[in-house]
Amino acid sequence: MRNLCFIFITVFISTGAYAQYHVFKSKADKAFDSKNYYEAAYYYKKTIEGKKSSPTKIPFYSNGKATKKQLQSSRPFILYRLAESYRLYRDYSQAEEWYNKILVEGNESEYPLARLWYGTCLRSNKQFDAAIAQLNQFTAKYKGAQEYIILAKKEIRICIFAKSQYQLHEPVELSKMGAQWNAGGGDYALVKKGNNYWFTSTRFTDKNKKHLNRIYTSSDPAVTPGILDLKFDENANDAEYGTVSLDRSGKRMYLTRWHKKDDRIILAIYHSELSNSKWSIPQKLNNIVNEDGANAFQPFVTADGKRLFFVSDKPGGQGGDDIWVSNLDNEGNPLDAVNLGNAINTADDEQAPFYDDIHQRLVFSSKGFIGLGGFDLFESFQNKGKWSAPINLGYPINSSKDDLYYYADPGDINRFYISSDRESECCLNLFEGHYKHKFIKGIVIDCDTRQQLPGVKISLTDSLSKQTLKQSETSSTGNYVFEVDGKHSYKVILEKNSYFTKTFYASASPRTDTLVNPDICLQPFKVDKPITIKNILYDFNKATLRPESKIALDALVIIMQDNPHINIELASHTDSIGSDPYNLKLSQQRAQSCVDYIISKGIDKDRIVAKGYGKRVPAAPNTLPNGKDNPDGRQLNRRTEFTVKK
To answer: Could you tell me whether strands 307-312 and 210-211 are parallel, antiparallel, or unpaired per DSSP bridges?
Structure first.
């Protein structure tokens, strides 16, 4: 009887655990199919873990040995769904853990994309070298759709760019805003008019007893913001709205309203007028913006109220979400809708436009251009109807996660606001940034005389866009100085007639007010006048370059990179020991070894020629007047030179 009871209890516990497994699995699948990834992750994790006291044993199946239904009940399937849920919910730390588990348990053949998503999660978590390794492994092994190979290669480029940006660090101070403004859920899309702040938040509302996106306002960052009471002409209790934009007067507001219909989210843009301290019932814009069957959202009205930038997936774009612009009539209604074109929009998503009327600058977020990961903020300038190539705003404005909703403070040119999920496992938070104005300065001297050089033309360019930002000349004492706004990394170009052009990169440190460069020397030259390259050394009777010789030649490579219009002859000379044919042959081989090295560094072979002169062009006597050997003279004759020929 005791044994029968034990068997009964065991079967009962096992049956209960198995039933519980199916309950969790069913809820997880339903949530996943409804794109409720937060809930899906919760129940898939419950399915995997079961009760601690009696863990559910989930079966393993592999392709060819089970039905589709059985495969969807197996541990690898649930692990993959769990990882996917966390990734799609943007909890990349958890997603990284579960994708890795899929790979460690040997299920990559069934879920080959697991390694791709594992790599993207590593990138999101700033593990760039590990991400590159995983993504390279994925591209080498994956045999499926080409779109995933393209995505993996793009992610590798993002990792490489992100590494350089995190090392460079733009001179910007960025801090998360106070807890009363980042109160759980999402807080984003801050704008400021006068002394009032407006932003969108998904915090819990007492009225609806749930988390819903609503507009919040405050006149003081230290004060808890209040919800803006808007009345719609339709039942909007379960609808959500936000991403507000106001014209200069602050009396006309544009906003996004969205609701769920079946499995689809419908987004449209509305506007409202302020009268007698009350906002009118928001009215939906016409179908020029809110085209049937398409979404329109994230409006930004220019300060003069004449144009509306917005985001839409309507036909006629470049793909995904695109940025459009409409001209507005006096009542704020759209007259047209023009796609900003492929200078701004890509086949991926572009969102959150901000337009600066004064500088004719568009700041927006994109996944289509190379950045640090996720959505990155870019800027583009409008000139005669054309947009310049977008410039990445760099770290720390951008991060390895999503960065959107740039907004420049209208009362302080050095202050701005962004929304980012860099410190969250799920949602956007509000951040305040400050540009730190810096000075880049130094002294230019002559490399030979070590005297200060006046009249050197100095150009300050953006190292990413290549655009020239400022130009000046050195003073009579060789000094130069630039005031910079801290938003860019810079390339400084120094030019003067009869001197080689020189460039260097500069980024003012966020810990200092000024980047003071050491004295920079420019090397003078004349066409057809040889310049000796020091420390070009070879072993006896050999033409193979020694390591220290390559270091010396690197300086010549830099000169040729900085001066792309010059052609040179690289010559090698010997002393008088040995026959003339022997020395000619050896010197030609040595000159050619130098040229081969320089070409290997990317210099066009048509710009450089090797010439061996042997002992025919001595720089000093090989013997003294009394006929004795002249070691110093021989040393001078064993030289390598370059000569500008053109």
So the answer is: unpaired
